[in-house]
Amino acid sequence: MEKNEMQNSRIENEMQSSGMGKNVNQNSGISRRGEENAPYYLGMTLIYSVCFAFAFYRNYIGITFPLITAATLAVCVLFLRKKRIPWKKSSWLYAAACLLLSISTVLTANIFVIFFNTVGILLLITVFMLRQMYDDRGWKFVHYVGNLLFLYLNMIPELAAPFIHLAHYLKKHGKQERKNKKLKYIMLGVLIGLPMLSMMVALLSSADQIFAKVVGKTWHGLFGQVIFSPNVFLVILLMVLGFFGIYSFLSAVSLDNMPQYGSGMTKKNPLTAITFLSMVAVIYVVFCAIQVTFLFTGGMLLPEGYTYAEYAHQGFFQLLFVCFFNLALVGACMTVFERNRILNLLLLLCCGCTYIMMASSAFRMILYIRTYHLTFLRVLVLWFLAMLAALLAGVVIALFRHGFQLFYYCVGTVAVFYLVFSFMKTDALVAEYNVAQIGEDISYEDLKYLAGLSLDAVPLLSRYNFEHENCRKDEGRYVEEYDYYALEVNWYYDSWEDAQQGCRRCLLNRKFRRVLEDTEGMDIRTFHLSKYLARKVAREYWKP
């Protein structure tokens, strides 16, 4: 830890009570004792809300996504500077990971990846701010997860913080009290007058046609198409979400009420864990011995009546669950029970058996992929197994190295693995593998699966150039002229989709038509690389 971090932590330890963790800087910032900075924070969050609305207005994966991520980090940095909290060098890693995830969102159209990119960015920013604001050296893995949830729950009552802080600030600076009272009365009059004005305009418009043409239409256009239009409502909603989201987060993170977990937590007698782990370890050893004897060696012997694919599919998900359970079990035993040599050996044995189970799971999945090829879920599962293996390595290190920061190891491991998964464009990888393995012999159902993937897979689908087969129009006659440009014949492809089942050419035609429809109207603000590449390929596909 850096020198200034150690100094801050030493000061904190002197000021901490037995049950609560204190903020690094208690005298400024958004807190119950820092309303004097309310104008600064209100102005900063208001500007951020405008940027938030600009970034996400009818656009959730465009080029503005990395920009709003950078803006969020900038707000956090300005907040820390205002509180005079020293910057920790390790915080750059969190900021870099957030920016990389936001860039990945612009490169892929896979909804699964985009969703978890967003979740990952929010979690990384939260951990980054907690590390900056609190002394987290005494927090274990379970404690850190609990504190994250505690912070998010604190954000709910802090939604009222902007009004409270502004009211306290105005009360403290009473020189402008008269002006504030006048403004209050004026605003009250406006709120009362608007409904009355609307009612009078409606009544007078119905009473006189000339008045209705001169005033009524203008009034209706102002309120119906401008003030109360769906577009204005969406912009205001996004600004409200951005404003209260960032303000409540900053206010909650500086409340100085985060539970502190120190040496007061007493660990349990390890004899209980030794007992139930011994029982479980016997079953694990027998299972792993069977895997090594009959699956990995001996010519991959299988039960009678089973194919490799059937055997692989039968036990894979059960093994995956057991692996994940073992990882949680070992971590829980290390947290709850006292350190003991026999307990450590049993935990190490469970870790070794878990590695064999992971290898068995991966081997089964590879057998299944050889027969039925790749899907998004199968790639995700193999990736997840690799990440579990890396996480389990950290658990093994923690068994023999007291004080090992397992939480940070897990955060770093998950971040690195997920960044790799996020950037590898899984849908394109699946399409590339299946097209290379199956080629022109691909079935209608397999092609239908590839066509159902995100826009990342579209450039691979353009390699196919099938002839029409088994497609009907009217009395079984296919009219080639309707196949020139799909955007002009929506009725043909949509109405006769059932009649075209089995025709791979018609399937691709529908796919590339929808690509052009989904990517239409893209501009600088909504630019997305995967959409751009898919649209480019689709336009080439429809060239005569």
Q: In words, what does this structure look like?
A:
The protein is built from 21 helices and two strands. It is mainly alpha-helical.
- Helix-residue proportion: over 70%
Q: How far apart, in Å, are the first and last alpha carbons?
A: 65 Å
* SSE string: HEHHHHHHHHHEHHHHHHHHHHH
- Uncertain regions: pLDDT < 50 for 5+ in a row? 1-29, 473-496
Task: Tell me the structural class.
Answer: mainly alpha
Residues in β-strands, percent: under 5%
- Kindly report the average pLDDT value: 77
Major sheet summary line: 2 strands, antiparallel
Number of helices: 21
Radius of gyration over all CA atoms, rounded:
31 Å
Lateral arrangement of strands in the main beta sheet: 1-2
Total strands = 2
Which geometry do the CA atoms define?
flat
Topology:
Layout: H1 3-15, E1 20-21, H2 38-56, H3 64-82, H4 91-107, H5 111-133, H6 141-154, H7 161-172, H8 177-207, H9 209-227, H10 230-253, E2 258-259, H11 270-296, H12 308-336, H13 341-372, H14 376-400, H15 406-423, H16 426-438, H17 444-451, H18 458-461, H19 490-495, H20 504-518, H21 529-541
Antiparallel strand pairs: 1-2
Helix pairs in contact: 2-3, 2-10, 3-4, 3-5, 4-5, 4-15, 8-9, 11-13, 12-13, 12-14, 13-14, 14-15, 17-20, 20-21
